[in-house]
Specification:
This protein has 310 residues and is an all-alpha fold. It has a single domain (75-306), classed as MetI-like (MetI-like fold, Orthogonal Bundle). Helices cover 75% and strands 0% of the residues. The protein has 13 helices and no strands. It has helices at 4-54, 72-78, 81-113, 119-131, 134-145, 151-158, 173-198, 202-210, 215-226, 228-244, 247-252, 264-274, 278-303. Helix 1 (4-54) packs across helix 13 (278-303) and helix 3 runs parallel beside helix 7 (173-198). The longest helix is centred in the N-terminal third of the chain and has 51 residues, at 4-54. It is flat, with a radius of gyration of 27 Å. The mean pLDDT is 85.
Length: 310
């Protein structure tokens, strides 16, 4: 009777051992992914869900706890003219900064990719604004825009033009802060395009030269389609940057004059940390995340079909 369990335990043990040997690579893989998964959930998914939950609650005041208010915060957002003003400003800001930054970055990358004297110096000059903190960049451009003795006004007056109050005129302030963002971002995006250009085979250019193709035709028909994966990556980053920039707004204009330069994230910052309205700020955050997710998915699904992956 004592031998009977051994006859049944041995095949079971062998099967369990084989199962563990089969699952061991998967277990190791999940253990390696576990730290990243914990950080992803803790710092991305949980805050997003918590923000969505807070957007349905009122803001706690002193001893009064938060209560469920449903869609009241979103209703207040629809009736808030400053929200719509900030949203429109942000769309114009993105509509200008994204294509101009990408066009400048491609142009600079094509230029410094060719063999020329001082190529390393040009690369460093283009990339230098990227390594500067946005607060420092904003203070530099405040000097450029200062009425009276600012650098831009001095140049205009030297040519007989009248100086402008670039940051004090509601019709000029949004364009002025947009120029700062473009100056800051173009060099950063140039690095990605330069790396992509250096990854292209020289045989493409040699074949185009043998066929007598112009530089513009070679770029439009060969280089640009091959750069589409990089362009999608840059587009997504440029879109995120356009909706998350707030540093230079705080330093240069504080959203003024008359909310003419207020962007969505700056308004969210004011509501959350200046007016301390947690519920309304959470609703603004939820709308901002929804906009970014929608446009990001649209870019991926629309542009991805026209992308050539080597």
């Amino acid at each position: 009777m004592g031998l009977t369990p051994c006859l049944f335990d041995k095949p079971a043990a062998l099967g369990l051992r084989q199962l563990m040997q089969t699952l061991r690579p998967q277990i190791y893989a999940y253990l390696l992914l576990l730290p990243a998964f914990i950080f992803l959930v803790g710092f991305t998914h949980y805050p997003a869900l918590a923000t969505l939950f807070d957007s349905l609650m009122s803001t706690p005041r002193g001893a009064r706890p938060a209560v469920y208010v449903g869609l009241d915060n979103y209703q207040g957002m629809i009736e808030d003219p400053i929200f719509w003003k900030s949203l429109v400003n942000n769309f114009w800001f993105a509509l200008v900064t994204i294509p101009i930054s990408i066009a400048l970055s491609i142009t600079m990358a094509l230029w410094v990719n060719d063999k020329m004297i001082g190529r390393q110096f040009l690369r460093m000059s283009y990339f230098l604004p990227t390594v500067l903190p946005m607060i420092a960049v904003a203070n530099i451009w405040i000097f450029f825009y200062t009425p009276g003795y600012g650098l831009i006004n001095q140049v205009l007056q030297a040519f007989g033009f009248a100086g402008q109050n670039w940051l004090g005129d509601p019709t000029l302030v949004l364009g002025s802060v947009t120029v700062v963002a473009i100056w800051k971002e173009a060099g950063f995006f140039m690095i990605f395009y330069l790396a992509a250009l250096q990854g292209l085979s020289p045989s493409y250019k040699e074949a185009a030269a043998l066929e007598g193709a112009s530089s513009w035709y070679f770029f439009r028909r060969v280089q640009w389609p091959l750069l589409m994966p990089t362009t999608i990556f840059v587009l997504v980053n440029a879109l995120i940057n356009a909706f998350r920039m707030v540093d230079h707004i705080i330093v240069m204009t504080k959203g003024g004059p008359d909310n003419a330069s207020s962007l969505l994230l700056f308004y969210l910052y004011e509501v959350g940390f200046k007016f301390w309205d947690q519920g309304y700020a959470s609703a603004l955050t939820a709308v901002l995340l929804a906009l970014l997710a929608f446009v990001g998915l649209l870019q991926f699904f629309v542009l991805d079909r026209r992308t050539h992956y080597r």
